[in-house]
Amino acid sequence: MSLKDYTNLTLHTDDYEINMMQTYFSKKMENRRAVFEVFFRTMPFENGYAVFAGLEHVIDYINNLHFTDDDIKYLAEHGEYTPEFLDFLSHFKFKGTIRSAQEGDLVFNNEPIMQVEGSLAECQLVETAILNIVNYQTLIATKASRIRQAAGDDQLMEFGTRRAQETAAALWGTRAAFIGGFNSTSNVLAGKSFGIPVSGTHAHSLVETFGHDYDAFMAYAQTHHDCVFLVDTYDTIKSGVPNAIKVAKQMGDQIHFAGVRIDSGDMAYLSKRIREMLDDAGFTDTKIIASNDLDENTITSLKMQDAKIDVWGVGTKLITAFDQPALGAVYKMVSVEQSDGQMRDTIKISNNAAKVSTPGKKQVWRINKQSDGKSEGDYIALSDEDPRHQDSLYMFHPQFTYINKTLTDFEATPLLRTIIENGKLVYKMPSLVEIQAHANQALASLWPEYKRQMNPQDYPVDLSKKCWDNKMNLIESVHNYVQHLNY
Ligand SMILES: Nc1ncnc2c1ncn2[C@@H]1O[C@H](COP(=O)(O)OP(=O)(O)OP(=O)(O)O)[C@@H](O)[C@H]1O
Ligand SMILES: O=P(O)(O)OC[C@H]1O[C@H](OP(=O)(O)OP(=O)(O)O)[C@H](O)[C@@H]1O
Ligand SMILES: O=C(O)c1cccnc1
Fold this sequence. Notes:
This protein is an alpha/beta fold. About 40% of the residues lie in helices and about 20% in strands. Strands 13-12-1-5-3-19-20 form a seven-stranded antiparallel sheet. Strands 7-6-11-10-9-8 form a six-stranded parallel sheet. The chain is globular. It binds adenosine-5'-triphosphate (ATP), 1-O-pyrophosphono-5-O-phosphono-alpha-D-ribofuranose and nicotinic acid (NIO). The site of nicotinic acid (NIO) has 8 residues, from loops.
């Protein structure tokens, strides 16, 4: 089950989208064809790759897209819309085509990660929600993947709900965290909705209720088989751990003494002492779980200190993407139908070279070496090109064109898959476990240079010659047009 029965998100769009729709409608342009593409300009967290997430929610959103009578009434009362336009909206259905990266795919800056092709009206309407969903979920999946890289094979528990930016962010965020490599969530609704394994320990309030570690742990042990005791409420070494061991010994086989959790103090020192105490008492399989404002940096540091921590509980810094709260993905028009029925590629010029959009409907080809399967880079081509038909592939840096290479031993795989075609879902959503496995496979084909946490190499994202020429020609024609203006 998914969170399908949440509020209809059709009005979850910016006012200006509906205002533009009204203009297109009044000018009889609402059915002109258009192509828009989603991309981000800089890598989140200065990471070498991003993990794409959000497609399932985008599909739910598109499937639910319709203006209810109530929505129309609201627009009639609050906007400058004509009755004819409101009538058009009341019959609106999404009939466009969406091509997208799959969840768990690795994606990079300045390449299309989703493409919407359809009528001008429908393409414009869906911009806001698509960006809202993809921006957040891709950011969290990427943060989770960074934390996974730091944690190695250790268990990662997602604890973020209480700190998330509201409920939807907690739920979709924990799903994105799972895609990025987390093992479980503390959020029960996320477990029910998405099938994520749910796990949890107990809070300090349990110990405070009983007033003593022993009484609290014993009460918990008498009411649960699997027990993780939180040992830092009063004094970890003098009271928490000794009382946890005492209860575990007294309860014997009646419980599974799965672990102890620490949530404060010097966790390198404490975990080493706790490990000795547990081992001395014969509980060599009992795990040590740590939480307290953890992220990939604290986990890396604790591992360097040889902390004896087996399981990491991570909340705030993951679910809020603490060190970079926005991915900054944008949705740009790349082609639009003219009055003569011809498509014209479009460009947004900027003084900042990196901000000049790449015109034309495109496909991203992931180029891997056939011999070792490793990624050589991404090759952005116009949609009528297919590098699979070429014996060799010339790849060059789109700004510093002297950086180039010619590949013969290569395999090209399209990144953008058709998800919705003319309004119909044509894509079978993989399970969440399959998506997580897909992300792991994708990471395995990436060289370690792109995966390191600090100062990773820039992954090559190149344009085909045809795509590059198309961009240069359009820049030239816009310059000519601006130069000949007389104001
Ligand atoms: N050995 C360590 N190396 C690196 N970071 C650590 C280590 N031990 C704890 N931390 C991290 O340091 C941060 C602050 O911990 P600190 O001990 O100052 O506060 P605290 O234990 O949370 O205090 P409080 O008792 O108020 O909860 C946390 O993010 C924690 O994960
Ligand atoms: O530190 P985070 O990465 O955000 O992980 C979530 C935090 O939430 C809990 O603390 P909280 O103080 O809310 O409740 P408690 O009384 O159970 O400690 C838990 O003990 C973690 O410290
Ligand atoms: O289960 C836990 O230990 C837990 C859950 C949420 C937040 N902090 C801790």
